[in-house]
Design goal:
- It is built from 14 helices and 25 strands.
- By secondary structure, the protein is α/β, with parallel strands linked by helices.
- It has 2 domains: 271 residues, Purple Acid Phosphatase, chain A, domain 2, CATH 3.60.21.10; 185 residues, Alpha-Beta Complex (5'-nucleotidase,  domain 2), CATH 3.90.780.
- A hairpin with a 2-residue loop joins strand 12 and strand 13.
- It is elongated.
- The mean pLDDT is 95.
């Protein structure tokens, strides 16, 4: 064999339930596995989280377990979780998610309130490959602290736990690998500050590192999103010197790859199973709920009112683009609600001073905001659409700049008081990023989990018939 052995490593991340791509990934991984086995070369494979995304009917209808059944085809050695696995399911659902997994989930920074790890997770594993190479693998996920605590979990500082486990494992393994759903900037910081990891396989920020990123003695890989690429690394290990000589990293485009037939059949079966699960009737509409993205309409008005009531707030505020289609007269199923409101977005209550509320309303009603096309923050629609308020009467006019200028705001029959704190029932995506900068002035925010916006909608529709 000589003094040099080659380890072939593959990794996927951030599929976000783009399941149509999965049979291509499986076909590619099977081809690579057969090639390496024929050449008597070791190979290992990992997933770095956000494989699930509740926008897809299979994920919604099977509570993510259909995704795990598909993952079983990949031959993963280990996987970690992303925020879509961790905070879009209840604790009970997450505890069931990996019951049938044939790979071990690694997650060092999530635990129960009593300090115990969930039974489906380990902080690390050590694998001895057939050629004697000893591999240590640790997994961590993004610490969305508020969300995890509301769901009953305790999330730990990933840097603290990584330092602990890296120190523990480093001298006992040949190669130390991190599965990191933290994002590229955090991965670079870990490579620099800890200096213990040979390989960091990253996710969360959807970077495509075509040739990896070499930082000090660490090589970082990340393969974008939606499964269009599979990450690949070739690691040359010097058996005599017991050190890595070279790491070559690539992102392999598998979009045009042949589809694996067995995986295709599995996907068809899962679609049928999920469709049956989602046929549960929610209510029956005696008249249609019409929708207009750029003007107030019965459907968006209903959703704004429902959000205000759910959050027990004075004001409701949602953007009409959160609804993707009208609902016709007749029975409404869970599948219908998922189709028209697929976002993994939760209701949220903000407490905002009147002067900032006025500023937020003005910004929300600009043409730029109405026409904004966004990706991320949980939004799975096409355009933001008109902001719809409940409990708010906005008066103004469109001036020569073609913008609507707010002149008077009345809240539940009273003029807006710039010094008073108002409660606003809305959606959590407005608390992330800078969609509505005034939200940053909210002194208090209350998130409602694990219910999504479609749960709020279903609750409201049921109550209308009771």
């Amino acid at each position: 064999m000589g003094s040099i052995c080659k380890l072939n490593l593959y990794h996927t991340n951030d599929l976000h339930s783009n399941l149509d791509q999965w049979p291509k990934i499986i076909a590619y991984l099977k081809d690579q596995r057969h090639k390496h086995e024929a050449n008597d070369e070791p190979w290992i494979c990992f997933d770095i989280g956000d494989h699930v995304d509740r926008f897809h009917p299979v994920t919604e209808g099977t509570e993510g377990r259909g995704n795990v059944e598909l993952m079983n085809e990949a031959g993963f050695l280990n996987a970690t979780i992303g925020n879509n696995e961790g905070i879009t399911f209840s604790m009970e659902e997450l505890n069931r998610l990996y019951e049938d997994a044939n790979f071990q989930v690694l997650l060092a920074n999530l635990e129960l309130p009593n300090g115990e790890l969930p039974q489906w997770a380990k902080p690390y594993e050590v694998h001895t490959l057939p050629n004697g190479l000893k591999i240590g693998v640790i997994g961590v996920t993004a610490p969305f602290t508020t969300y995890y605590e509301l769901l009953g979990w305790r999330v730990l500082d990933p840097f603290v736990v990584l330092r602990k486990w890296a120190d523990y494992l480093r001298n006992d393994v040949d190669i130390l690998i991190l599965l990191s759903h933290l994002g590229l900037e955090a991965d670079k910081q870990i490579a620099t500050e800890l200096g213990q990891f040979d390989i960091i396989l990253g996710a969360h920020t959807h970077h495509v590192l075509l040739n990896g990123l070499h930082q000090g003695k660490t090589t970082i890989g990340q393969a974008g999103k939606f499964g269009f690429n599979v990450g690949k690394m070739e690691i040359d290990w010097d058996v005599n010197q017991k050190k890595i000589l070279n790491v070559t990293a690539e992102c392999m485009d598998v979009q045009s790859y042949e589809r694996d037939e067995r995986c295709e059949m599995k996907l068809l079966e899962l679609n049928e199973r999920a469709d049956q699960m989602l046929q549960e009737k929610v209510t029956v509409l005696t008249q249609p709920l019409e929708l207009d993205w750029f003007n107030p309409s019965p459907f968006s008005t209903l959703l704004s009112k429902a959000t205000r009531e759910w959050c027990n707030a004075e004001i409701g505020m949602i953007n009409s683009g959160l609804l993707l289609d009208r609902l016709p007269e007749g029975p409404v199923s869970k599948a219908d609600l998922h189709r028209i409101c697929p976002h993994p977005i939760n209701p949220c209550k903000l407490f905002l001073k009147g002067e900032y509320l006025k500023e937020m309303i003005q910004h929300a009603l600009t043409n730029e905001m109405e026409q904004l096309q966004i990706k991320g923050l949980g939004f799975r629609g096409k355009v933001m659409g008109t902001m719809i308020f409940d409990g708010v009467d906005v008066q103004g006019q469109t001036l020569s700049d073609n913008e609507y200028h707010v002149q008077k705001i009345v809240i539940n029959g009273e003029h807006l008081d710039p010094d008073r704190i108002y409660s606003i029932g809305t959606v959590d995506m407005f608390t992330f990023g800078r969609l509505l900068p005034s939200v940053a002035y909210a002194k208090e925010k209350a998130y409602y989990l694990p219910e999504t916006l479609r749960d709020v909608l279903g609750w409201k529709l049921k109550s209308m018939n009771n």
